[in-house]
Amino acid sequence: MAHTPDEALPEVVRIARDLIRFDTTNYGEGRSNGEREAAEYVGAFLVSLGLEPEYYEPIPGRTNVMARVAGRTPGAPALILHGHLDVVPAVAEDWSVDPFAGVIADGMLWGRGAVDMKDMDAMILASVAEILRAGERPARDLVLVFFADEENGGVEGSQLVVRDRPEWFAGATEAISEVGGYSIAVGDGRAYLLQVGEKALVWMRLRARGIAGHGSRFHPDNAVTRLSEAVAALGRAVWPVELTETTRQTVDGLAEICGADPGDPDAVAEATGPAAGFLRSTFRTTTNPTGLTAGYKHNVIPDTAVAAIDVRTLPGQEDRVLAEIQRIVGDDIAVEISHRDIGLEVPFAGELVTAMVEALERHDPGVPVVPYLMGGGTDNKALAELGIVGYGFAPLRLPADLDFTGMFHGVDERVPVDALVFGQQVLTDLLRSY
């Protein structure tokens, strides 16, 4: 790998690298390395810009930080720019580099969080810094917030901030965060995806019970066998394509670019190359097994076996999907909900959407911007409880052959250095103009 010296790095890249070097691993269910040190780094940077950050740490180590930036348009609603500082675990042995070293090589920044979402955290900080250091102000008041615990649904982060510190968001009506504004290949061309919705999340456990016994016995009442059958049935379930208003616009927009048949959404998705799997998940419910727990000794049949299932439904379909899951796994399997949140879908219209589209057009002319519904979720869901409308807009111009969407929670997560610079330029432009 060819490495880039520090002095040649743009500030947005240095900030993203520094944030990656804080191991803010979130294992879920309250187990986390914590975000305090990363939040203090962010706070110190904000202080260096003349801002006055506030911290909220409702649980030791789970630190949230906020600062307000005065805009130049009196009476205009404030705009929230938010990110999260935690990351999912990374198994170092599976990576080509140390996932927390912040390696910059071959034109890429490598590390856990490079894509999700310390890249956007850095773009927010560098954009605000550029404006303030130039002696300017953004077009409107900005609320900068960096949350803890997003990778566990915000239970110990944004949900508590919204509950306990709603005054942080006073006067704000809209928010911008991650997983949108990036480019994908579409046939021989490309497009930018602007996130205007998120699927609902349901984390559940399937629990099977049987009779404990010796591992050598003839034993048909085996909890592990029963659970395995249920997990296989659910994991292989084929959920139908059901387009929402947003995903219909996604399919139609992409089909127009590549000439595919809009009547076959999966075929349209295939025209996007590496992004196909990511897009196909936005057209349907997904039910993915993500963990199995059973047994305590090789020659003992346990009486209980448990599986973790990550369920993502289209907005408003949660109850219908849960009923179908129970039918698939059978009545002898207990379905236990550990976390459930809402789906979101907002119009691909309005002054902010127009401003984001125009900012991309100024920096990459002639490339279409298409709305989409994200298969995952963000802290926009917590802000929605305050009536705040959220979008995904972390702009990145990416190589056509880079499997960017596959790097979310994946191995060898990395982002091109020039994409970070591009993103910061677009975001700075937006904050100056909107």
Question: How would you summarize the topology of this molecule?
Answer:
Elements: H1 11-20, E1 26-28, E2 31-32, H2 36-48, E3 54-59, E4 62-69, E5 78-84, E6 104-105, E7 108-110, H3 118-133, E8 142-147, H4 158-164, E9 172-177, E10 182-186, E11 189-198, E12 200-209, E13 213-214, H5 223-235, H6 245-258, H7 265-270, H8 276-280, E14 286-294, E15 300-301, E16 304-313, H9 318-329, E17 334-340, E18 344-345, H10 351-363, E19 369-374, H11 380-384, E20 389-392, E21 414-416, H12 417-433
Parallel strand pairs: 5-8, 5-9, 9-20, 11-19
Antiparallel strand pairs: 1-2, 3-4, 4-8, 6-7, 7-21, 10-11, 11-18, 12-16, 12-17, 13-15, 14-16
Helix pairs in contact: 1-3, 3-12, 10-12
How would you briefly describe this protein structure?
With about 425 residues, the chain is an alpha+beta fold.
Write out key terms for the chains shown.
21 strands, alpha+beta, four-stranded mixed sheet, 434 residues, globular, six-stranded mixed sheet
Plain-language structure description:
There is one protein chain. This protein is globular. The protein contains 12 helices and 21 strands. The mean pLDDT is 94. Helix 3 packs across helix 12 and helix 10 crosses helix 12. The chain is of the alpha+beta class. A hairpin with a 2-residue loop joins strand 3 (54-59) and strand 4 (62-69).
Mean pLDDT over the full residue set? 94
Count of individual beta strands: 21
Shape: globular
Rg over CA atoms: 22 Å
Determine the N-to-C terminus distance.
40 Å
In what range is the share of β-strand residues? 25-35%
In helices, the fraction of residues equals 25-40%
Briefly note the structural class of the backbone.
alpha+beta
- Strand arrangement, largest sheet? 3-4-8-5-9-20
Q: Biggest sheet, in brief?
A: 6 strands, mixed
Q: List low-confidence stretches.
A: none
- Count, helices: 12
